[in-house]
Amino acid sequence: xxxxxxxxxxxxxxxxxxxxxxPELKAEHEGKFVLIHADDVVDTFSxxxxxxxxxxxxxxxxxxxxxxxxxxxxxFFVSRNISPSxxxx
Amino acid sequence: MPxxxxxxxxxxxxxxxxxxxxxxxxxxxxxxxxTIPTPQTIQxxxxxxxxxxxVDPTILSALGLTPTGTAExxxxxxxxxxxxxxxxxxxxxxFAARQGDLHFISEAVQVTATSFASSGYQxxxxxxxxxxxxxxxxxxxxHFTLAY
Lengths: 89, 148
Known about the structure:
The structure holds two protein chains of two kinds.
Chain A: H1 12-29, E1 33-37, E2 40-45, H2 48-59, E3 65-68, E4 75-78
Antiparallel strand pairs in A: 1-2, 1-3
Chain B: E1 3-7, E2 14-20, H1 23-31, E3 40-46, E4 54-55, H2 57-62, E5 69-75, E6 83-95, E7 102-105, E8 109-113, E9 123-125, H3 127-130, E10 134-138, E11 143-147
Parallel strand pairs in B: 3-9, 4-8
Antiparallel strand pairs in B: 1-11, 2-3, 2-6, 4-9, 5-6, 6-7, 6-8, 10-11
């Protein structure tokens, strides 16, 4: 997985943590939403809303990642002639 | 079921929308005593070719948002390859055609930051949100109806 511009992507550390723990996450929690902060897999949740809520409660404005657990990463499509931003605002 | 009917513009079916913070982020900011940014009113293109909604970075910046997710995206400019992009948690509201009230407010959704410079709209409403709506596109008569 690469960023659109090759620039360091936001949440890169959290994404590495997700990939590192994906084997056990997909075995036990596929379809759920995982909350990750830095190197820590904090918890899993049944809904995106609950995971986001927990992230803000625990980490306030610090970076955290919420990601739905998939064995195969789903790909989203945008038909427009545009380049999605690859870096944090 | 509330609905709005509007003319199809030369750029496509465009609605007036509001990009706003999720309830969770609003609560976090309130408990920290920080200012809660007001919702951003924008023009949004209904795009059945987008499976994830996108919002212009200037709008996300005005809301003070930072990424809370990532998504693998294939766009017309990515040469068929998926690229990993950050996503942001927001709620999207759609205004009724004539009144000023918001007639539809999504639950928390993740959107990409996508630049729409000079396009006449600042967001794409994709099938992630349209999957909860009924869209009737009447090209022959030049109008569309969105029910939700």
